[in-house]
Design brief:
There is one protein chain. The protein is of the alpha+beta class. It has three domains: 1-39; 44-123, wza like domain (wza like fold, 2-Layer Sandwich), CATH 3.30.1950.10; 127-197, Roll (Outer membrane lipoprotein wza fold like), CATH 3.10.560. The protein is 28% helix and 26% strand. It is built from three helices and ten strands, in the order αββββαβββαβββ. The strands form three sheets. Strands 7-6-10-8-9 form a five-stranded mixed β-sheet, covered by helices on one side. A hairpin with an 8-residue loop joins β8 and β9 (178-181).
């Protein structure tokens, strides 16, 4: 009996020690998780630097104000928008963040005390692929698009296509100058990618 009691006592001590070690081991993990959750987020970094242009589609919402919500508006070449209360707003060249600020400032005081405005991009304007590709034309823009991906979307390069003669015309360039590009060059909405023929 004495031996059994001793064994039971030893087993209990081992079990308690294991529990304490487990709890001690969990504390750094919990602290680490808590630290991760407290990392501040810079709200300014959430705004895109992308400039709105003809063909873009967006939705404007004001929290709690359904009459100020505009769903899936596609920008025309004029790039203007008739918005309730504020009237005509020119959108071309604005970023999403800038448009949010214009509407927020316009509504504050005149119509709402503290308007909560959000602008969502529903669809970017298309990009274009011309030259020695299987299916030249316009295509819906996809985030993180490169020249290589653009060619793939356009059906791939033709046999006589030159990978040394790739050019891109930026939609943001007023002069519409064709600049040299390569397979890894980023493509933005509205850009035109051109690949020429190889003669060798």
């Amino acid at each position: 009996m004495a031996l059994n009691a001793f064994q039971r006592s030893s087993t209990l001590k081992c079990w308690l020690s294991a529990c304490l070690l487990a709890v001690a081991g969990m504390q750094p993990l919990a602290a680490s998780a808590q630290t991760t959750l407290q990392v501040p987020v810079d709200s300014a970094s959430l705004f895109s630097t992308y400039q709105l242009g003809a063909g873009d589609m967006l939705t404007i919402r004001v929290l709690g104000e359904p009459e100020l919500t505009l769903e899936k508006i596609r920008l025309t070449d004029a790039g203007t928008l008739s918005y309730p209360v504020l009237g005509e707003i020119r959108l071309l060249g604005l970023t999403v963040g800038e448009l949010e600020k214009i509407i927020t400032d316009g509504l504050r005081g005149r119509y709402l005390k503290n308007p909560q405005v959000s602008v969502q991009m529903d669809e970017y304007r298309p990009f274009y692929v011309n030259g020695m590709v299987e299916k030249p034309g316009s295509y819906p823009y996809l985030p993180a698009l490169t020249v290589r991906k653009a060619f793939s979307i356009a059906g791939g390069l033709k046999i006589r296509a030159s990978t040394e003669k790739i050019y891109i015309i930026r939609s943001s360039d007023k002069n519409q100058e064709a600049i040299k590009a390569d397979m890894n060059t980023p493509v933005s909405p509205g850009d035109t990618v051109i690949v020429e023929q190889s003669f060798f």
